[in-house]
Design a protein that fits this description.
The protein is mostly helical. Helices cover 77% and strands 3% of the residues. The chain contains 19 helices and two strands. The protein is rod-shaped, with a radius of gyration of 45 Å. It comes from Vibrio xiamenensis.
């Protein structure tokens, strides 16, 4: 636009000057080396204007040609990018369908032309991992790691793949390296929870649980369940390393709330029994049931005790049944103590009471045994058949 205006101004000026000096064209002499050029002023003006017009026209043509070339180049580039996106989308669908070979092929064929090659390499890594091609998996992850802002997603993908392939130690190393920089990342925290459970890193899980709850990776119910699972696992590990005295000391340092949990108390009692601390286990069970008689799970542990004198246990269970005759677990435990003393009729009576309250394969088996010991073969066979129907 500026050039057109300039040309019009020059032409207008030429016309004005031409009319002012009509008939007085003047004289122009141009001498270059041995050559001379003669012309009137009017001719020179026309020549200059024509030269400028030609130059402006040539510039316009060249710019149009360059623009057309650029548009053509961009068209090919956009076409490649669109094709890469289409193949990547198809590859993701193939990955979700389980066709891992096709998924890997599609996302890698045009990955260099994708506007986000990181996505292509991550999908390819997942496809390779699902095929068990660990070298290819790691190769694609290495390519993904070369992309900008890829560290977190690449390492989380690597950790998830290790977890799926049950390489929990390698997954833990990867996640530990990330946890300092991304302490609130949900995927990282959830993956750590899974690894800690699989590796039985109970103390680490106990420390992690408040963060999981705070970041809403788990709800209150899951928090309570995982806490009991982790504390029970920790009790087993302490018992294995330090014996009965060590696990008792560990128990004493737990909170009052944890000590009232039925499952955790049963876990502690089982560890005491496993370490031949049966008297301590019986004391624990008695004191707990006196405070919390609804902890029926603990009654079944009484039958597992190896006590020098079983009379206190029989008395305790008999008193419990006087308070609550519908306590099936107490009936079953008392029956087993009677069976240990070969008191078959009493054992039969309590087992039948327990089975009237609720069905139990193990109690049916015990009842069949008690009946057999009393030469009640037909009744024992019928009871055995009932037990089999429950198993089926």
């Amino acid at each position: 636009m500026f050039r057109l205006i300039f040309l019009f101004v020059v032409l207008g000026a030429g016309l004005f000057v031409g009319t002012q000096y009509a008939g007085q064209q003047g004289y122009v002499l141009i001498s270059i080396a041995d050559k001379t050029i003669e012309m009137s002023v009017t001719t020179l003006v026309i020549f200059v204007i024509a030269a400028l017009a030609i130059l402006f026209g040539l510039e316009y043509v060249l710019k149009k040609a360059a623009h057309a070339s650029s548009r053509t180049w961009n068209w090919f580039g956009v076409r490649k990018q669109r094709r890469s996106r289409r193949l990547t989308n198809e590859g993701i669908i193939k990955l979700m369908e389980g066709d891992y070979k096709q998924a890997e092929k599609k996302v890698t064929s045009w990955s260099k032309h994708h506007d986000m090659p990181l996505l292509c390499y991550l999908v390819a890594s997942e496809a390779a991992a699902s095929q068990g091609k660990t070298d290819q998996r790691d190769h694609y992850l290495a390519l993904a790691a070369e992309q900008q802002d890829s560290h977190l997603v690449v390492e989380l993908t690597r950790a998830r793949q290790y977890i799926r392939q049950r390489e929990f130690d390698r997954a833990l190393n990867t996640l530990d390296a990330l946890s300092g920089d991304y302490p609130t990342n949900h995927m990282l925290l959830s993956s750590l929870k899974t690894v800690y459970i699989e590796l039985e890193r109970w103390e680490a899980l106990i420390s992690l649980l408040p963060r999981l709850l705070k970041e809403k990776c788990i709800n209150e119910a899951q928090y309570e369940a995982l806490t009991i699972q982790a504390q029970c696992g920790a009790l087993k590990q302490v018992a294995a390393k330090r014996g009965a005295e060590g696990v008792i000391e560990h128990w004493d340092h737990l909170s009052k709330k944890l000590k009232t949990d039925q499952t955790l108390t049963a876990c502690f009692a089982e560890q005491l029994i496993a370490r031949q601390a049966d008297n301590e286990a019986f004391t624990l069970i008695k004191e707990t049931l006196k405070k919390h008689p609804n902890h029926t799970e603990l009654y079944s542990l009484i039958a597992k005790l190896n006590l020098a004198d079983g009379h206190p246990a029989v008395t305790f269970l008999s008193d419990a049944l006087k308070r609550d005759g519908q306590n099936a677990e107490a009936h079953s435990a008392l029956a087993q103590l009677y069976m240990h003393d070969k008191k078959w009729p009493q054992a039969q009576q309590h087992l039948e009471h327990a089975l009237k309250i609720r069905s139990s394969v193990s109690d049916y088996a015990l009842l069949a045994d008690a009946l057999g010991k009393q030469n009640m073969t037909k009744a024992a066979h019928e009871v055995s058949q009932k037990a089999l129907t429950l198993v089926r």
